[in-house]
Amino acid sequence: MNIGLFGYGKMGKMIEQIAQQRGHAIVAKVDVETEEISFKTMDVAIDFSTPDAAFGNITQCFENNVPVISGTTGWLDNYENALDICKQKQSAFIYASNFSLGVNVFFELNAQLAKMMKGLDQYKASMEEIHHTQKLDAPSGTAITLAEGIIANTEYKEWKLEEQGDKTIPITSKREGMVPGTHTINYESLVDTIEIKHTAHNREGFALGAVIAAEWIKGKTGVFSMKDVLNLN
Ligand SMILES: NC(=O)C1=CN([C@@H]2O[C@H](COP(=O)(O)OP(=O)(O)OC[C@H]3O[C@@H](n4cnc5c(N)ncnc54)[C@H](OP(=O)(O)O)[C@@H]3O)[C@@H](O)[C@H]2O)C=CC1
Ligand SMILES: O=C(O)C1=N[C@H](C(=O)O)C[C@H](O)C1
C-alpha cells in the first residue's frame, strides 16, 4: 500500500518504520513547508501533525479522494466539519485519540467500570494524564475520550482541567521529561480508592495501530472508529 504521511515528527517517523516493516511504501512526507502534494500516488493518508494543521490536511485529502487516518489531537472543534466534508466527498475517515490496542481495551474497561460506579455517590471520579514536555495540547485526546466514556455511563456532566464540582470530572495534566503517555482514573471515597491505569512504554503501539487502521480502511467509504478496526463492538 502507498501511504502519505502528514506530519513527520516523532509519530510520523515511527509510523514510517512500522509501515515499511509491514511491506508498505511511504510515497509522501508532508510538513508545513511542502508546496506540492502528489495525492494521486497515495492509497491512504496518515495524519499525525499539529492541532492547527490537522483539519486542513485532512480535508485536502478528502478533496483529493484519499482516505484518512488521523491521530492528531487538539483539533476537535472542527471534527463535525471534517465529517461533513468526508461524507460530501464520499471519502473515508478514522480519527482516534489513541490508536494503541492497549488503550482501546482500556477505553472499554473504563466504560464498564463507569457503569458499575453509576449511583455510588460516595465515590468521586478524577483523572490524571502525564505526557512529555513537547506536547502542545492539554488535556490529552485520550483523557478527553476517557472522560466522555465516564460521562456517557454515569451522572457526570462534564470534564474540566483541575476544577472540582459534584458533576464535573477534574483532569490533571502533567508534562514531564519524555513520558510517552500515562492515564489514570480514580474513584475515591473516604475509605478507599479504585484506580485503573494505562502506561505506554513507547510510541510503537500508537504507530502500529495507525498502520493497521490504514490497512483496514483501504477501499472503504464512510466514517469509522478503532472499535470497528479492532472488532471491539
Ligand atoms: N492518536 C494517537 O494514537 C496519538 C496521537 N498523537 C498526536 O499526534 C500529533 C503528533 O504527535 P508527535 O508526532 O508526537 O508530534 P511532533 O511535534 O513530533 O510532530 C508533529 C509534526 O507535524 C509537523 N507539522 C507542522 N505543521 C504541519 C503541517 N501543516 N502539515 C504537516 N505537518 C506539519 C511538525 O513540524 P514542525 O516541527 O516543523 O512544526 C512536526 O514535525 C499530536 O497531536 C499528538 O497528540 C501522538 C501519539 C499517539
Ligand atoms: O502527544 C502525545 O504524545 C500523545 N498524544 C495522544 C493524546 O493526546 O492522547 C495519545 C498519546 O497519549 C500520546
From TrEMBL:
Broad class of enzyme this protein falls into: oxidoreductase
Dihydrodipicolinate reductase C-terminal domain mapped to chain residues: 102-230
Dihydrodipicolinate reductase N-terminal domain sequence ranges: 1-99
EC identifiers of the protein: 1.17.1.8
GO biological process: one example: lysine biosynthetic process via diaminopimelate
Any Gene Ontology CC annotation: cytosol
GO MF annotations in UniProt: 4-hydroxy-tetrahydrodipicolinate reductase; NAD binding; NADP binding; oxidoreductase activity, acting on CH or CH2 groups, NAD or NADP as acceptor
HAMAP family linked: DapB (MF_00102)
Stated family: Belongs to the DapB family.
Name recorded for this polypeptide: 4-hydroxy-tetrahydrodipicolinate reductase
Species this chain originates from: Flagellimonas flava
Encoding gene (name): dapB
